[in-house]
Every structure is written in structure tokens, then in C-alpha cells.
Amino acid sequence: THPEFQAAIPILQKIEAAGFEAYFVGGCVRDALLGLPIHDVDIATSAYPQEVKAIFRRTVDTGIQHGTVMVLDHGTGYEVTTFRTESTYQDFRRPDAVTFVRSLKEDQLRRDFTINALAARHDGLIIDNFNGLADLDAHLLRAVGNAQDRFHEDALRMMRAVRFESQLGFTLEAATAQALADNASLLQHIAVERIATEFTRLLLGINRAAGLSSMLQAGLYTYCPLLVGHKAELSRLQALDSRQIKHEDVAWTLLTAVLGVKPVAFMKAWKQPNDLTGTVDHAVKLLPALLTGTADNLALFNAGAASVSAAIGAASYLQPGFAAAAWQARYQALPMHTAKDLALTGQMLLDAGMQPGPQLGRALAQARTAVISGQLPNDAAALLAAVK
Ligand code: ATP
Ligand code: MG
């Protein structure tokens, strides 16, 4: 019923016509059955990568060593991945080498949770070898096969478990929850970037409290950067206003503020990008003044648009009834939002006979402060007169 599937059906049919099996697999099947929007359509097939390439006119080798070929069709790219097993796991991480197989069931067997191990044929028939449909109905996250073994094979699956708990609002099935508690320490073998990706999605999910609660209960947080020793703060975060957070700027600002840690060092430990780190840093600095209602024009201007939004967002979780809309309006109404909005320029000062040098820069800075705080209008003539 989703148009994304409709458009891709001819791809499956073409592979079948060539004598192979092909299915929609993974998150797109799960999300479609849950009535959620789907992002990308993943296709799995019994055809080997070279066989896939022989079927379609235009393909790109996006991940051929993992068995993935991108098929280009009317401007859309579809990832077509050969059924595979991941038999040789080392160091609790996903293996680099994979073995291609011809059996769908073996491919489903290597997937993390039963709800992620569903396959759909072009005609809509669901191939459910591990009772994923029942778990979808029951809103349960259950490891495919033995949960202890699965988390041993790939410890990232534990972060995926708590991420899906939050993203989907599902519950961990008992043996899966137990395996999480038993194997939490294996998370130390996983790259920070990969942990961070799942953690961000947890923070942005519809049931953040459930995901955080499992991280606390299982002790997973202990193996995340700079979270050890912060159980009380994380519990506080869990107990805040349960509205879904829509922006990662807000999520990381709120997290950093509740933990009471230094933003730059914290974000660096989590290997977050510099622009996000900068936004969070300025947002956390602005936050106390927002919460006490004392933030002035200059503080808002200095924080900048992204940090003002992030701080307002975070404040609305920290303080029930926080006047988010009023603060956003106040920021919008500032006479200027970036330095280049100032009506006075250095050239105007030179033309007016001012000598080049540090006093020119100081004059511009003073004019800027006066405009932002509302003492002078942002008008070239008025500013020039005031500077003189
Ligand atoms: P979303 O698209 O919302 O992130 P997803 O389930 O599609 O969810 P992906 O990371 O895109 O997540 O992975 C696609 C599929 O690949 C999953 O549904 C699952 O079947 C399988 N998979 C992904 N990562 C793992 C893993 N670490 N261990 C086992 N199977 C995995
Ligand atoms: Mg996906």
C-alpha cells in the first residue's frame, strides 16, 4: 500500500523473472506493518551480486563486498543485498567478511530482532520464520534465536534494542532483557560513533523514558562515554516531561544540561560533529538565564539562532509551563541576528574620516551592542552620528 513499495515491485519481479528470489526486508517491512512512514526500501535476494548486476541496466557497486548493489530505476536507487550469513564474529563486533547464501531463512536468522526479520514478497505475502508478526502485535522486541549469543556476536545490538524500545514504544521480551543485563559490558568493544547514532535515536524516540530506563537497569550507560557515575542525573532525565524530542540539538542540550557536564568535552567524547557541539555549548550557556527569565537581548544574540532554539527546547522540558513561544518571538524580534545585519560598516566610518585601526573595530562593536540592546536604531545615519 505504501507508494515506496509500489514503485519497487518491478525490481522484485525482474529478479524473480531471472529465476531468483527477492523480498522487501528489514525496517521497511516492520514499519509498513506498523502503519509508520518508511524511509528506505531494502531488498534481499538469492541472486549473487554479479547476477544482480547482470539483470539490471544501471547499477552501482555501493557495498559489493557486503553483497549490496544499488539498482537505479527512474532516478531512484534501491539497495539490493544478497542473502548472507555472518558466521565469523570477532571482538563482539559485526564481521567484515560475510558468506552469501541462497536461503532466505538463513538471511533472516542473522538479523537482530524478530520484528526486523520479516520479509515481504512482491505480492504482499509475509515470510515470517521467527514469529515476528506475533511480536509486532504484542509490541515486543525479541532477539532472533538465543539473545545471549546474539549480543555476544554483536554488542551494538544492545544499543539497537534500547533505541527500538524508544523509537517504536516496544517492550523488551524477558530473555532479551536478561541478556541485555548480562552482557552490557560488551558494549565497550563498540565504536563510540555507532553507540552515539543509536543513543541519539533513543533520545528522539516516542518512548525515551523506556529506552533510558533499560539503559539504566542493564547498566549499559556505564559503557557509554562520560555517563558512568551519572545514574541519578539520567534517572532525572528519564522522569522529565515525556513529550517526544524532535531535534537532536534539543536532545543533546537537554542531556548535557541535566548531567551538568562541560558541553565541549562531553560532545567530543561522544565524537559528535563540531557544529552540533558548538550549538549545544552556546545553548547550555544560555539556559540558566532562560530558566530564570533573565536572558537579555545580548545573550540571545550571542547564542545565535540554533542555540536559542535548542536552549528554548531544552528549557521547555526542564520547566513545566516554560514560555517557549514567547522567548522564540523575542529572539525573532531582535533588531539584528548576525553581525552583518548592522547598518553601519567599517567603510562608512572610513569615508566619514575615521582612521583605520583598533578604535574602528571598537566603534563598530559599540554600535552593534547599542543596536542589539535597543539603545539605538539600526540605521546608518543615526549610528554614524552616535559614533562621532
Ligand atoms: P531504521 O531504518 O529505523 O534504522 P532498520 O531496522 O531498518 O531501522 P537498519 O540499521 O537500517 O535498521 O538495518 C536494516 C536491517 O538490517 C534491520 O532491520 C535488521 O534486520 C538488520 N540489521 C541491522 N543491523 C543489525 C545488527 N547489528 N545485527 C543484526 N541485524 C542487523
Ligand atoms: Mg533501515
What does this protein look like?
This protein has four domains: 1-135, Beta Polymerase, domain 2 (2-Layer Sandwich); 139-239, Hydrophobic Seed Protein (Orthogonal Bundle), CATH 1.10.110; 243-334, Methane Monooxygenase Hydroxylase, Chain G, domain 1 (Up-down Bundle), CATH 1.20.58; 340-387, Serum Albumin, Chain A, Domain 1, CATH 1.10.246. By secondary structure, it is α+β, with helices and mostly antiparallel strands. It contains 20 helices and eleven strands. Adenosine-5'-triphosphate binds at residues 26-27, 39, 42, 94, 111-112, 116-117, 154, 156-157, 160. Adenosine-5'-triphosphate (ATP) binds next to α7.
CATH architecture of the largest domain: 2-Layer Sandwich
Q: Mean pLDDT, rounded to whole units?
A: 96
What spatial form do the alpha-carbon principal axes imply?
elongated
CATH-assigned fold name of the largest domain? Beta Polymerase, domain 2
CATH superfamily of the largest domain, by name, is: Beta Polymerase, domain 2
End-to-end C-alpha gap = 70 Å
Small ligands present: adenosine-5'-triphosphate, magnesium ion
Q: Order of strands across the widest beta sheet?
A: 3-4-5-2-1-8-9
> How many domains, in number, for the residues?
4
Short description:
With 388 residues, the protein is of the alpha+beta class.
Descriptive terms for the model:
388 residues, binds magnesium ion, alpha+beta, Methane Monooxygenase Hydroxylase, Chain G, domain 1, Hydrophobic Seed Protein, binds adenosine-5'-triphosphate, 20 helices, 11 strands
